From TrEMBL:
Pfam families: Pkinase. The lineage of its organism: Eukaryota, Sar, Stramenopiles, Ochrophyta, Bacillariophyta. This is Protein kinase domain-containing protein. The keyword DNA-binding does not apply. It comes from Grammatophora oceanica. GO terms for molecular function: ATP binding; protein serine/threonine kinase activity.
Length: 196
């Protein structure tokens, strides 16, 4: 199975509209960093509640500049899974979310609700006061552009580091755990070269 029958944000494939809570045929599609806790349970199919979690992760990244379960931007899929399974609630603390309105934090928290039956639906999300602009602040979000740029730079360095390791190893089977020290060395070298 090639995994192409999945859909939605957690699978980056919108090939068809899936009815709410309708399971998909696949259990191995998508990107681990955007999976909700229930997705790690064997036999669980994708559904709309999972996509809402993914939307919460994306919103968290957009508003904070960091991934909620990979704050440094260097974790492997296995490490992200461990973080999600040990505590699936997104980190809500002053250094990360202190600049956000209560309404924005409320939306993130409800999208990333660990219990899928309590998680916001798409309809509830588009009617949330933050999405509708009812709680918009006139205050400027200081340095939001810098936080997003930093997230992008870390991801770019990570991708470049992975590519370099693959080239160096001749595209042989190399696990993330085996490649991680070399990838991290490449990332640190690239950041030092930029004067970061």
């Amino acid at each position: 199975e090639d995994g192409s029958n999945g859909n939605g944000a957690s699978n980056y494939d919108a090939s068809r509209v899936q009815k709410e809570n309708e399971p998909s045929d696949s259990t191995s599609t998508g990107t681990t960093a955007y999976w909700p806790p229930e997705r790690f349970i064997k036999g669980s199919g994708a559904n709309a509640a999972m996509d809402m979690w993914s939307a919460g992760v994306i919103l968290y990244i957009m508003l904070t500049g960091v991934h909620p379960f990979d704050l440094a931007g260097t974790a492997s899929d296995e490490e992200i899974e461990k973080e999600i399974m040990s505590d699936p609630r997104p980190p809500i603390r002053d250094d990360l979310t202190g600049h956000l309105s209560e309404s924005a934090v409320d939306l993130i928290t409800k999208l990333m609700e660990p219990n899928p039956s309590k998680r916001l639906t798409a309809y509830e999300m588009v009617n949330h006061p933050w999405v509708k602009g009812q709680t918009a602040s006139a205050d400027k979000m200081l340095d939001s552009d810098k936080r997003l740029l930093k997230f992008k730079e870390v991801r770019n360095h990570l991708e470049a580091g992975i590519f370099a390791v693959l080239v160096r190893h001749g595209h042989q089977d190399v696990t993330i755990s085996e490649a991680k020290p070399e990838v991290m060395k490449n990332i640190r070298g690239a950041e030092e070269g930029e004067g970061s």
